[in-house]
Design a protein that fits this description.
The chain is mostly beta strands. It has one helix and 20 strands. The strands form six sheets. Strands 5, 6, 8, 9 and 10 form a five-stranded antiparallel sheet that branches. Strands 12-20-19-16 form a four-stranded mixed sheet, with no helix packed on it. The chain is flat and about 50 Å long.
């Protein structure tokens, strides 16, 4: 962990981190890292393009997140996409050492207003991965509008849990053109340690106004307003307003 609170995985294992404020208050959280799984998950997300859907994935255009996880089911929800006639949801168990599980089609939702789905008959204490794509019907054929990022969610009943929130150091940032600021972020676990499949990620809604690095450094590019999304592996997120003067 660096002085800004950024945690970087360097090897497999479990670590407990305690943060202390200037007035003496403390908070403790546990991180479990499996670097082999993380690398395989990245490959698997790329392999999902075999479905003949080649879209740039952006979190803010189609945010997908865990809504609820029980021992045998995971409910996911997403933001309604303007103009969408429906959605196609994909999922699979997360990768394990030596085994890559490719995404399979779970459901074709023929209702542009439906923005939730529950995947049932799952095994307890297992991580699953999901992504969703929005489509519009043109002459009876699907035209793809957006694709979500892949999220990773564990069912209940195991020794690991999911993030319930993302905590950031700033929810509003005002910068002059050319200036920069590092956002400190961490995922807050529900009640059990999180087995890390991907790092916390950062995304700008308009890179012409402000960019953000994988370490959370925001760089003001030109006058205007945009947002930075900071999201955990299960899709839980926090939005930061950025104003460039």
């Amino acid at each position: 962990m660096d002085e800004n609170g950024k945690v970087t995985a360097v090897g497999n294992g479990t670590v407990t981190i305690t943060a202390k404020t200037t007035n003496g208050k403390t908070a403790t959280f546990t991180i479990v890292v499996d670097l082999e799984i993380e690398k395989e998950e990245e490959k698997s997300e790329d392999a999902d393009n075999e479905t003949n859907v080649t879209l740039d994935t952006t979190f803010h255009k189609l945010p997908l997140a865990e809504a609820k996880a029980t021992k045998n089911a995971v409910k996911v929800s997403w933001k309604k996409v303007t103009g969408a006639d429906g959605y196609v949801l994909y999922g699979a168990p997360c990768n394990t050492k030596g085994k890559i599980n490719k995404m399979k089609k779970l459901a074709v939702i023929k209702n542009g207003s439906q923005i939730t789905y529950t995947d049932r008959k799952l095994k307890s204490g297992i991580y699953y991965k999901y992504c969703v794509k929005a489509y519009k019907l043109v002459n009876g054929k699907k035209v793809w509008l957006a694709k979500s990022k892949t999220i990773h969610v564990t069912t209940a009943g195991g020794k690991y849990g999911n993030a319930r929130a993302v905590k950031v150091s700033n929810t509003k940032v005002i910068l002059k053109k050319g200036k920069s600021l590092v956002i400190k972020a961490q995922q807050i676990a529900e009640n059990k340690p999180i087995k890390q499949h991907t790092d916390i990620k950062f995304e700008s809604t308009n890179t012409k106004i402000a960019t953000v690095t994988k370490n959370g450094r925001i760089k003001a590019k030109k006058k205007g307003t945009c947002y930075i999304y900071v999201y955990a592996q299960n899709g839980t997120c926090k939005r930061i307003k950025v104003i460039v003067s």
